[in-house]
Amino acid sequence: MGAFTTTQFNGTLNQSFLEVFGIGGQTAKKGLVHVIPNVVKQTEIYRGFTSEDPFVQYTNSSILTDSVDFTMKSRLLTPVETSLKGSFVPHGWLKTWAEHQAGRTITNLKMHPTIFGYIMRGLKNSASTHLDKLYWQADTASGNPKLAFYDGFIKQIETDSDGDVINVPPVDLSGVISAGNISAILDAIYLAIPELMMDNPDLRIIMNTQDWKILQLKNKELTESTLGILGTVEKSLFIQNRIEHLAHVPKNTIVTTLIGAGDDSNLKVGVYANMDAEYAGLQVEIFHAMSKQVDFRMDMASCVNYVNGGDIIYYKA
Predict the structure, then answer these.
(1) Would strands 313-316 and 166-168 be described as parallel, antiparallel, or unpaired?
(2) How is the chain split into domains, by residue range?
(3) Is residue 238 classed as helix, strand or coil in its secondary structure?
(4) What is the DSSP letter of 294?
(5) Tens digits of per-residue pLDDT, 151-204?
(6) Of residues 83, 81, 86, the one with CA closest to residue 121
(7) CA-to-CA distance for 36 and 154, rounded, in angstroms?
């Protein structure tokens, strides 16, 4: 039997996959990245800047004699095609679904929307978790086929082509985050934040969840004797700068930058999971004419990059 797609699924399941790419992962759910949809081909993300004061003296003349140099730079979002696939045997569900056991009322068992919907929701949870890992840890040179799709934020930062990422050196010989040095590490990051970024409500200190736990326990210890190193009410603020933790930011790594779900975010994610002539949407097919196994597949693309390395303060042991 050939592959087929039904409109019965595409309205809801295709949207489900868009959520995997757009808002399904921890990074996007916390509003740390600007998700750009429909990035099918290589796309430039621009930034313009000038080191000069752009204001000049007003004149009635149509010609301004003073000029200010303005520079445009760009980085690339290069989407990488991937396939999300799996298989299941829907007939086995009759044994566990009490509402269908008596009358065996499921029709078109292999394509029943309720069965397939449960399968897809479980898949979405797993896919969104791995996609979040790719955002931060993907590395084409890693040798790990599960991470080699493209270069994630960490690899992009460490190989910054413009050379303007602000690197914070380890505060001790190992640099490994511990209860004994976490305060000194945050101090060093704070001092490295450019003046024009200070007090920006979109500034975030992003760290690994296990390292964040070390910070919270240290703060608890200090709070019991003094006032701690974080806010006494809000335990995720360091001198008015919010700290976010993510499971897939590598341990002993801290990225401080401007975040958000809109254009002003320094962190960009390009995604594509729509149906068109190139991407066939959700395809479902019986594995073999004599088989009860059903296979499914959906092709998609994703990629990440940041806009300005100068807006990133990076710590790594």
Answers:
(1) parallel
(2) 7-49+71-316
(3) strand
(4) E
(5) 999 999 999 988 899 999 998 888 899 999 999 999 999 999 999 898 899 999
(6) 86
(7) 19
